[in-house]
Amino acid sequence: MILFAVIFSVASLRPVSDDSGEVAAAPKSETLSLTVPKMSRVKNVPVYTAAADNNAALDEGAIHVRGTGFPWDEEANVYIAGHRLGYPNTGSFLVFYDLHKLNDGDNVVLRDADGKRYLYKVFDEFVVEPSQTEVTEPVAGKNIVSLQACTLPDYSKRLIIQAELVEVFEDSEQASRK
Questions:
Q1: Contact residues for 100 (Cβ-Cβ < 8 A; gap 6+)
Q2: How far is Cα 167 from Cα 140, in angstroms, rounded to an integer?
Q3: Torsions phi, psi of 167, nearest 5?
Q4: Which residues of 28-41 are buried (b: 16+ CB within 10 A; e: fewer)?
Q5: What are the sequence ranges of the domains in the chain?
Q6: What is the reported pLDDT for 8?
Q7: pLDDT at 25
Q8: How many whole angstroms separate alpha carbon 11 and alpha carbon 111?
Q9: CA angle 84, 104, 83 (to 5 degrees)
Q10: How many helices, marked H, and strands, marked E, lie in the chain?
Q11: pLDDT one-digit tens code per residue, 11-27
Q12: pLDDT at position 22, please?
């Protein structure tokens, strides 16, 4: 099985803004989970904040690339990478296998450690070279989530799906019903 390697490195950390630069109050922990209703393997997948090259964290589910935004930031690119194939009997196995099936308007839901849900709608899909780290940068005036996996069949490029925040729910059930 070919190993998927996340090669993006993000050098600078961006703190959560304290002066009303937040969509919602920051939770006590940076722990996230990811649900994509259209993707059968992506339901409450743990998302660990880690360096882009932390394969141990990636093997447990998906990683939120350290130094990129959080869903509670007003302007952010919450950059999440996952394995296309991964390893059997791990949290990464086939987690982003069908990422390419997402279309404009499809839902992506992040849940923070306090149970707050952030509903995003897909608006873009594109492929980049592994060296194109600018894809991790925020988009002016928007809070987005970027989901990344390697391209098939040769894993030489990165498939990126982007979705924009449309609603924040205190009640965890509301976002799931949308």
A1: 125, 152, 159
A2: 18
A3: -165, 150
A4: eebebbbbbeebee
A5: 32-177
A6: 36
A7: 83
A8: 26
A9: 10
A10: 2, 8
A11: 333 333 345 466 778 88
A12: 64
The whole-model pTM stands at: 0.83
177 contacts: CB under 8 Å, gap ≥ 6: none
Positions in the chain whose pLDDT score sits under 50:
1-18, 20, 172, 175
The pair of structure tokens assigned to 33 is: 């989970």
**CATH number for region 32-177:** 2.40.260.10
pLDDT score of 21? 60
How far is residue 135's CA from residue 155's CA, in Å, rounded to a whole number?
A: 17
Q: 121-124: long-range contacts at Cβ-Cβ below 8 A with a sequence spacing of 24 or more?
A: 121/163, 121/164, 121/166, 122/161, 122/162, 122/163, 123/162, 123/163, 123/164, 124/160, 124/161, 124/162
Token pair in block for residue 10: 């993000």
- Per DSSP, the three-state class of 108 is strand
In this prediction, residue 7 carries a pLDDT of 34
CA distance 36 to 34: 7
C-alpha torsion 136→140→144→147, nearest 10 = -20
Residue 36 structure tokens: 């994509």
Instruction: Find all residues with CB under 8 Å of 95, minimum gap 6, and list them.
Output: 41, 42, 45, 61, 62, 82, 83, 86
